[in-house]
Design a protein that fits this description.
With 551 residues, the chain is α/β, with parallel strands linked by helices. The chain is built from 21 helices and 19 strands. The strands form four sheets. The protein has a nine-stranded mixed sheet with strand order 5-6-7-2-1-8-9-12-13, with helices on both faces. Strands 16-15-14-17-18-19 form a six-stranded parallel sheet, sandwiched between helices. It has a two-stranded antiparallel sheet with strand order 3-4. The protein is globular.
């Protein structure tokens, strides 16, 4: 089979430098389920904006046989995890196959292609080991995104890093820059060193984006295990220590990437400050800059609402918001058997179920929660949604706890299936997008951006991107955050009380007593989120501040 690759659009000269973009997940469109959460949403928006801007960028990812997982219901309405095979007839078989080394053994890698015209993205190649030439164990490498087994995750890193690099040996298009979107594809850096045997040459070609201060996103792995897994390719442990300046028995993947890249970026101003504080004592680091995350407005925004906004028609704007709420409430009725009212303020808490995101903070003070949920003058409806990690028993337990609690209230619902389609509906149907991470723990967060593009008002702890966007009482509401140096229990107590006060004394009275002012605040939010948090700004910034600055 002959496969010839060229971009299907004329490259803008401002973005002509060829860039290969490596990400473990992409949230492109609902039918392509190769994403888990925020990292994928970000990567998807980046590829869509690269297409709009006609950038010379090519994405590389993995074709996950079972995706992340399908979140389904058990007989008692609690959630269950389903790994279901995914079939994609819209992907093109390139016929490209080659071998890489995993655990000292040759493993065949096959490349599929998502043509840009399918979902209006930059070109995307998806790699798989699930082909007949491989044995069962090798085939399972590309079964589950973020497999619970460490060896499986490392094997996937090798497929993305070495496999992605080797893909371009079979194409006439050659990258000048390789972008590590998180450290998963770190083996790519060792591939480049094998080619040039000079870290200066690697730094001329490699940039790195870190997306989280959380330990889970900055893994450390035993050097011996990595060498045994062929994570370093042909390099010895001594060579890896020499080029990464890491002398201990464990390799910190983030630190290695920051030392081998020409430039590193954080994904908000606050996150970049945190990165510099976290790694400030280390030497040999690449420069650390800030490029704040963004979301693709063309994909996410309610364009009819923006037309009404630009026409100054607040009546039409309100009607469109109510219509969006009704669409969401059909899902609530279908999943939970509850009929929500579009005229009642609706709070949505929807994101990945990670501990620091505090999905249950509304329940922290049970009496306060009861006051809010039973208030007759200022009634509310609350919707929770999100996917816990499939083997995180505590997070799944929290999700199921919310399910059980919500059964007792006609105005509370917990939805399953938090993927792109449901995310769009939730953002359209939310009056309040509630965001309460522990301060400094949320690198960026992007869900509130696309929520604002759909007329949802952000009520948030001032972390991540929110600190650059939210003007308290003007385009949303800031929840004053506790000192992050306090014990976690005290932080949660203070933040919960601040959240209750903000909702009860500011948000709810404004919505019900001065709805015209509420619409003005909502309008200001919609205006302010674009263009600063539209991913076209972000995609331009990566070229201007990273890709064109190295080499």
């Amino acid at each position: 089979m002959s496969f010839t690759f060229t971009h299907p659009y004329d490259i803008d000269p401002a973005f002509s430098k060829p860039v290969a973009y490596f990400s473990m997940e992409y949230a492109i469109h609902q039918p392509l389920k190769i994403y888990a959460g925020g990292l994928g949403f970000l990567s998807g928006s980046h590829l869509r904006s690269a297409y709009i801007l006609k950038q010379n960028l090519v994405g590389v990812g993995i074709l996950w046989k079972y995706g992340y997982y399908d979140q389904v219901r058990r007989s008692d309405q609690t959630m269950d995890v389903l790994f279901q095979e995914k079939i994609y007839h819209f992907l093109q078989d390139t016929g490209i196959q080659f071998t890489i080394q995993i655990h000292g053994q040759p493993v065949w890698v096959k490349a599929y292609y998502l043509p840009p015209e399918i979902f209006h993205t930059a070109p995307l190649f998806l790699l798989t080991t699930d082909i007949p030439e491989n044995d069962y164990l090798a085939r399972t490498t590309c079964y589950k995104l973020y497999d619970s087994e460490l060896a499986a995750r490392l094997a996937a890193d090798i497929v993305l890093g070495f496999g992605g690099a080797r893909l371009f040996e079979h194409l006439s298009w050659k990258p000048a820059v390789y972008h590590l979107n998180e450290s998963h594809a770190l083996p790519l850096a060792f591939y480049l060193y094998q080619q040039y045997r000079n870290t200066r040459e690697v730094k001329k070609r490699l940039v790195f984006t870190n997306h989280t201060p959380e330990a889970a996103g900055n893994p450390e792995t035993d050097m011996g295990l990595l060498h045994e897994m062929s994570f370093f390719g042909e390099l010895s442990i001594d060579e890896v220590r020499q080029i990464t300046h890491i002398d201990g028995p464990r390799l910190n993947h983030t630190l290695a990437a920051m030392r081998l890249a020409g430039i590193t970026n954080g994904v908000s101003q606050l996150h970049t400050q945190t990165l510099r504080q976290m790694w400030g004592r280390e030497t040999q680091l690449s420069p650390i800059i800030a490029i704040t995350n963004a979301q693709d407005a063309q994909y996410w925004a309610n364009h009819a609402m923006y037309e009404a906004l630009h026409a100054g028609d607040l009546t039409k704007l309100r009607e469109l918001k109510l219509a969006a709420k009704r669409k969401l409430f059909e899902v609530v009725a279908d999943q939970c058997g509850k009929l929500f009212d579009e005229h009642i303020l609706t709070i949505v808490v929807a994101r990945r179920f990670a501990g620091y995101k505090r999905m249950n903070l509304l329940l922290h003070d049970w009496q306060k929660f009861q006051e809010i949920i039973h208030h007759t003058t200022y009634p509310v409806q609350i919707i929770w949604a999100g996917k816990p990690y499939p083997t995180d028993g505590a997070a799944i337990g929290l999700f199921n706890h919310l399910v059980q609690i919500s059964k007792s209230y006609p105005n509370c619902a917990v939805l399953t299936g938090y993927e792109l389609s449901l995310s769009k509906l939730l953002k359209g149907g939310a009056d309040v997008w509630l965001n309460v991470p522990r301060l400094t723990r949320e690198a960026s967060g992007t869900s509130g951006m696309s929520a604002a593009m759909n007329g949802a008002v952000n009520v948030s702890i001032p972390d991540g991107w929110i600190a650059e966007f939210l003007k308290d009482g003007v385009n949303g509401f800031v929840i004053p955050a506790a000192d992050p140096q306090l014990p976690e229990e005290e932080i949660d107590r203070q933040d919960a009380q601040a959240m209750y006060t903000t909702l009860q004394q500011r948000v709810l009275p404004l919505y019900y007593e001065n709805h015209t002012q509420w619409l003005s605040l909502m309008s200001r939010s919609m205006q302010d989120v674009r263009p600063q948090f539209d991913s076209q700004r972000m995609a331009k910034a990566y070229y201007e501040q990273m890709y064109l600055q190295i080499g």
